[in-house]
Amino acid sequence: MMKLLSLIILIAGVFAGSLEKDISFRYGLLGQRQSNSDSTVELGDNSIVHTGDDIRINIGYVNNSYFYLIYLDSDGSYSLFLPEVSRNENIQDTLYTTVLRGGLTNPPGEESFYLINSKLPLSYLTKLLSRYENAPDKAKIKLAKKIQVELDALDPNAKAELSSIASRLDKPLVGGVTFRGDDDDELKDMSLTHECRGTGGIAFIKIVLNHK
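RESULT FIELD:
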């Protein structure tokens, strides 16, 4: 009886530990076409965009976690963007903020966005990106390879022990509140349209825009 009880306690502990490693965040990748700047459109993987289009990325994530947006532009350069919000370990609420906003510039090509939410800080990756920012061109080539290796190691498509699933929300959210009224499905500047769920303490998604 004692062995059975111990086994039940062990199984419960393992299950609880696996739940603790689950993580998720909400996001919205939005665009304003240069040809129609009054209209906000939802963007997704393989969406076509054009030079001069305004891109905005909104995210909502749990306060006691770490969020990173890494941008690989069409020119092959990496940039790191962090949420412009203060961390408060005593508050467990979800933080809502815009991580990136700006117009697309030439050259055309693939614009890649890596959205990563982690329960632990990704110190080595951020160190590489910090060094990359100030490195001479030759050093950037070597650092870029190391950065991509780190990103590939986090990609659930490349690691069997990790998984991330992105799904569209039934209705857009903003500031954690569902829109109500006649404009329930209308996109706003601060809209969140998708949710990404991950395991192993990492939620990861890569989105590539086709810049024409």
